[in-house]
Amino acid sequence: MSSTEKSKTPSQNQLCGKDSSSAYLMSIVQTLSSSADFEQREKEKTRIEKAYRESDKRLGELVANNYQDVTQILKAFNGMTKSINESRDKIRKIKENLSSCKTLLHFKRDELRKLWKDGVEHKAVLSMLEQVEQIKEVQDKMNTYIANKHYLHATDMIVQAVAMLEGPLYGVDALRELKSDLINIKERMHETLIEELSKQIYERSLPSSSLQRGSQMRLSRKDASVWGWSDGLDSPRRAPKLEGSEMSSSKISYYEVKENLNSNPQDNLENFIAILTESLFALHKLPDGVERLKLSMKGSLNKLINTATQQIAESSGQQLDSMVNHVQPKYLNELLKLIFEQARYVAKTHQIFLNNVFRLTSSGMPLLSHVLYDIKDVWSEIQARLQILLSQYLDVRNTMSSRQQAPSGFDEPSMDISQYFSKKRPAKPKKVSLFRFDASQHAISVSSARQQIQQFEHDALGLSDNWHIVKVCKPDAFNITAIYKPLRSFIVEVEEIMETSALQEFITDFVQNAFLGQVHAKVSENIEAATRGFDALRNIIDEKTRRELGVPRPLLQSTVTVDSSIQELQDLMHDLPNYADQFLNMICNVLRDYKDKCNSAYRDIVQHGSDEKRIISSMWAKDDDISRFLRSLPSWRSLQPRQGKELDHTICSEEEMRALNSKEAIILISNLSTDESLIPQQEIITDVTQMRTVANVHESLEWFANRLDLFADSLTPQSSLAPLQEELPTELPPISDKTLQSLKQLVQEFKDLAEICLLLLHLEVRVHCFYYLLPVAKQSNYAGPIDDLDPDSNVLKLNKDLSGMEEMMTQSLQPKKFKYIFESLGYLVASILINSVQFLNKINENGIKKMCRNILAIQQNLTNITLTRESDLDRARHFYELLYMNPDEVLNAVAEKGPQFTLGEYQELIKLYHRSFAGNPVQVQDARMQRLHSLMEKGQNETLA
């Protein structure tokens, strides 16, 4: 290291303040001693002096700037020094005093030891006296605590008192009687706690809203706080779930149970249950309490249900004894809703109790498995009680004993037929005793006493099955319709807890094995009574029923009965939606049976003889071509509704309507007027009552089919659901596609039968016209004397027949359908009369007048029926009036005015003229025919042009 570097080291250390003053001085000495010449030492001295002056100057500045602080520090230091000196003097004096005290106490140690022993003895005596005074006040305080339901303080007091009497105060003879009393109180204390616990679980009053009909349970703030669901000061602190136990799925609260003497412990139910459980635990009676609650569960639930029944009776304002004789399932519905609410409260309270049991037994006092129960046991017992209750209200015993055989698909046979053919084992001979003592007086008295003891024990523990249920309505299987939906909702809640529900199994077994069969039997019996006998399809509803149904015309009583039964089944589908498919199958079976009966009745009307020959109108109504043509006419299409509104009459010109009527007339005439034979009487319906029956069947089945159609449209098929869509927001669940298709097919068959009946009436009226008018030309004489001018007898019969049918159909059919039947009838009659000219042998002027009178008579009658002038009959009358002229005059009129009739009609007219007036050679007839052809062709060409 160089001298320059060495000389810099002390100054740098001084400026930086890193070394102490002594080290700095030693470095200066070392530097001066190591210097070789005087000049260097002078330089170092000069540098040091300069640094000293700078330091002194800086120190003076610092002292000047911090004079006050330095002054205060010096004063404080002086004060501390003075205090330390004074403290040393005091300690020295104390040490001297302690030494003198030690010397004095050494001389008095025996006397002090005696005084200390006396003080300990007096203190122990005072403590025992104080304990005795407290023991004397235990009973009074216990009574006060129990009266105020402060059971935890009462339990702690009695436990501590007994422990004191059996411990420190064991040898006090004066407390022997008090000790015995307190021990007895302690032994009976758990009975009070268990009774109070049972009361809190089963007898705690529910909110009043539970008794209001049609209202749902909603807890008020006060009620919520009672159940420990509020955030009050005494709310428990939530803890993690209890792992490894059956109660791990529920939240168990770990918190210090405290009892406030200044508040009502019942204000917070959860804390009160914890207090009772803690008290039983302190008495070491918690296993007894759990077992007692488990054994008394059945009897307590029975009592709870009976109390709820009495509440329903009081709220209804009726006498409970008389309610059982009335069919009023709404009270049963209210009763079940109330019981469901109470069951939820009971399960909730049991859950709170079990949570506290597991909390207390997780660290000590384990419970045996046969003593402990869980929340599933509670719900199982609730379901068992409800099952017994429902079996009484649903009259399960009588329903099952008188159960009718349901149709296939609703009830499967439960008995194996092979057991009838299996080889049976021979029965073992029974051992017959020679004599018995069971009937002796001693045995009877002993048996009676034993039974009384067992009955008393069972009643005390709630184990007796002799549960007398007072009912709020008449027992009936159909009560299930009023309670199924709330019952199903309750079962869903139970299944969320227990995964399976015995109550659900009971309801399913009852509905499938009893109720469905009874419903089917009832419906079948009603329908069988309505459709039994020959006049089943003749009986119609009365006027009052017709007004209630709002129908314009009478309906068959059988149809209304079947519709009422179907409506009942539809209501059952809504009441029991889970069995909608079964009820829909039942509806289809009922409809299928009724359809067969309607078809059978229809065949009885339209069929005559044993060879299955049918009337003409029936065969035509079944004919595809004729039926298709008639359904294509505007008059038929106007009868068909579309979207709930009737179509307006199709607008057709007069020529188009005449063409359609002409086509219908040609079809009918071609089928009935082609030969010389007449229509047999057995091929028409001569009884007006039968036609009335057909009209009633039409109106009834059309009304019935429309109602069924609306019902079918309201159903949702399963195929309409999307793959990810489980159900639609509808009241009924989706129906199987096959069943729904069957229903729609049956509805269409009813519609078809109704339309066939209307077509039958339409055609039957026209066949009657043929039946009466064909003999007019084929059998009557129109070349007779002058006095034979009255209308033909067949014409009079036709008018009478038409009037009878008009009167019948006016009462049985709606006006639009009546109009459809008689509309265009005049054109058909005119066509029949004009076509019948070929069957007349001869005719004279008197015959022409007679034929015109026939036409006029029919025209007047049809005008009275249809209330419109039948102008088509004027055409027939004009046709026969042409016979007043000779054929040449007729041909001249055709040449001048054009043809008014067809070629065939003019030809038959000319032929009749030549048959009637002799002397006209065949050549003249042929010439007139030839001229007629040329005139008709000319007129046709002009029309086309």
Tell me roughly what share of residues is in helical segments: 55-70%
The overall strand count is: 4
For the biggest β-sheet, the strand order reads: 1-2
Q: Let me know the average pLDDT.
A: 78
Helix tally? 35
The biggest beta sheet is recorded as: 2 strands, antiparallel
Q: Which range does the strand content fall in?
A: under 5%
- Report low-confidence residues grouped into runs of 5 or more: 1-19, 207-253, 404-435, 452-464, 643-650, 722-729
| Rg result | 58 Å
Distance between the terminal alpha carbons, to the nearest Å?
148 Å
Secondary structure class reads mainly alpha
How would the global form be characterised?
elongated
Can you describe what's shown?
The model is unreliable at 1-19, 207-253, 404-435, 452-464, 643-650 and 722-729 (pLDDT under 50). The protein has helices at residues 3-16, 21-34, 38-65, 67-136, 138-147, 151-165, 176-203, 221-226, 269-282, 286-295, 297-316, 320-323, 329-361, 375-393, 396-401, 441-461, 480-498, 502-531, 543-549, 557-575, 580-606, 616-622, 624-632, 634-637, 654-672, 688-713, 737-778, 793-812, 815-822, 825-835, 845-866, 871-881, 887-897, 903-916, 922-944, and strands at residues 607-608, 613-614, 641-642, 645-646. With 945 residues, the chain is mostly helical. Helix 9 (269-282) crosses helix 13 and helix 27 crosses helix 29 (815-822). It has a two-stranded antiparallel ribbon. A two-stranded antiparallel ribbon has the order 3-4. Component of the exocyst complex involved in the docking of exocytic vesicles with fusion sites on the plasma membrane. It comes from Biomphalaria pfeifferi (Bloodfluke planorb). Residues 48-144 form the Exocyst complex component Sec8 N-terminal domain. Belongs to the SEC8 family.
